[in-house]
Amino acid sequence: MPYKLVVQGGAELNGRVTISGAKNAALPMMAAAILAKGRTVLRNVPDLSDVRLMCEILDGLGCETSFENGVVIIDVVDETPVAAPYELVSEMRASFCVLGSLLGRRKRAEVAMPGGCVLGVRPVDLHIKGFKALGAEVEVDAGNVRASGDKMRGAHIFLGGSMGPSVTGTCNVLTAATLTPGVTIIEEAACEPEVQHLVDMLIAMGAKIQGGGTPRLVVEGVKALKAVDCDVPPDRIEAGTFIVAAAMTRGDVVLDNVCVEHLGCVIDRFSKIGIEFEREGQTSLRVRGPEQLEAMDLTTLPYPGFPTDMQAQSMAMLSMAKGISFVCDKVYPDRFMHIPEFNRMGANIRKEGNIAIIHGADYLSGCPVKATDLRAGAGLVLAGLVARGKTEVLAVNYIDRGYDRIEEKLKGLGANIERVELIPRRRRTDFTPSGRLKAA
Ligand code: EPZ
Questions:
Q1: Are residues 194 and 47 in the same domain?
Q2: Which domain, by its residues, includes 112?
Q3: Measured from the CB, is residue 122 less than 6 Å from ligand 1?
Q4: Does one domain contain both 186 and 260?
Q5: Ligand 1 and 95: CB distance under 6 A
Q6: Which of 193, 199, 202, 298 could covalently link to 212 via disulfide, CB atoms 3.0 to 4.6 Å apart?
Q7: What is the per-residue pLDDT across 16-45, written as a single tens digit (0 to 9) for each?
Q8: Cα(122) to centroid(ligand 1), Å
Q9: Nearest CA owner, ligand 1 atom 20
Q10: Atom of ligand 1 nearest to the CA of 237
Q11: Which entry of 63, 97, 117, 230 is annotated as an active-site residue?
Q12: What is the pLDDT of residues 216-228, one digit of tens each?
């Protein structure tokens, strides 16, 4: 059923919120379950539509999956299926991650090319480059990637592209390399925490990997891996989203279940514009928003730089900051589809090439807006928190891909936000010429 989120602006957010497990760690970890027969258990998994979709994809690949109360169980019972169908892969790019595990363990894989999306061109050339370097035969035909790996051997691979490292590309090639005979060196590997957590899981499964979290991974192939029971780490992007929520509403919020180390760049940049941070124990972070946010010059970069997945949320905040801000996305230069939606609310943002120029507005006005991707949707909700009047955010399905009950968590901090069922809009064609509603 389609929904909209209706936000009444003006509330100051205060209190505590528990951050869920990381979507972008859970998905490659789920795909890695294919590497071993038996029962993999993942805990602290966020309840997201993307996680449920990955369960469906794994069910089609000989696994029996279950997901309840934050625990995903993946029982690999049949290792003959090797094809992930387009209708599922096209819904979520991350499903491409199963290719590496299938190739590593089953030596065969057929996965549809992931679809494009509003972030811009999203190629998989680096994934394919890595598999070919390992000696796999890879062909792209009719929208499918077919790979076979009977004669795979360890290799020295440079996996960076013109836009820097690839997160899921690193995950994909790494999983294939764990069961490939010989030593594989992956240079220009992605260093994101989500890759680090995948490395930790693979090592727990019996893989021999050095350099997790660094640009150089060294993998010594092993004959077999074992199923494990492990935790999904906290979601640093959800945490960043709630940092912005506190900052924009002059709030005082404590985030629980966060990994503060993984928020280093966000804390560094945001501290400069008046947001106060105070660590509470090992896994909590207190955030206080200033009376007036200052403008800033922000560039997104691969980790440990400022995350591109925090760009739209930051733009919401800067649309109300005093002065002129500049936002440049070096990871996805076209990730600015949310600018027109913010401007509908009274923001003053102009795109010049891959830079957004933001003149801080005195206020935003609530109105109907539409999410263009999951982070843009979150940014629009944040803008609604401070806008005058009511904001209705449509295409909430995007937000549900990456946020576990966002409206409940915001409501728990004092926000005035409701999830409302969308009544299908009647069209002229729903009525007979005499004006009577046609039978359903
Ligand atoms: C992951 O996507 C995340 N998704 C994205 O989060 C995130 O924005 C992105 O990394 C960058 O941090 C998951 O982990 C499921 P990339 P991924 O391959 O791996 C180019 C969200 O909001 N590239 O690291 O698909 C690419 O075009 C989502 O949670 C190639 O050129 O991103 C981009 O410019 C959105 N060739 C850059 O590299 C390739 O073969 C980084 O892409 C692959 C990528």
A1: yes
A2: 23-220
A3: yes
A4: no
A5: no
A6: 199
A7: 999 999 999 999 999 999 999 999 999 999
A8: 7
A9: 163
A10: 29
A11: 117
A12: 999 999 999 999 9
Q: Is the CB of 125 under 6 A from ligand 1?
A: yes
Choosing from 220, 246, 265, the residue where a domain stops is: 220
DSSP characters for 122-176? Answer: ---HHHHHHHHHTT-EEEEETTEEEEE-TT----EEE--BTTB--HHHHHHHHHH
Determine the distance separating the centroid of ligand 1 and the alpha carbon of 109, expressed in angstroms: 21
**Considering the domain boundaries, does residue 440 fall inside one?**
no
Is residue 117 flagged as an active site residue?
Answer: yes
Tell me how far apart the alpha carbons of residues 8 and 408 are, in angstroms, rounded to a whole number.
Answer: 14
pLDDT grade, residue 105 (50/70/90)?
Answer: very high
- Dump pLDDT digits (tens) for 222-281: 999 999 999 999 999 999 999 999 999 999 999 999 999 999 999 999 999 999 999 999
**Same structural domain for residues 154 and 280?**
no
Residue nearest to ligand 1 atom 44, measured at CA: 166
Nearest one of 226, 221, 197 to 209, comparing CA atoms: 221
Structure tokens at 39: 């029962």
| Cα 169 to averaged position of ligand 1 atoms, centre (Å) | 8
Rounded-to-integer distance, Cα 43 and Cα 47, Å: 11
Whether residue 14 is found in the same domain as residue 36: no
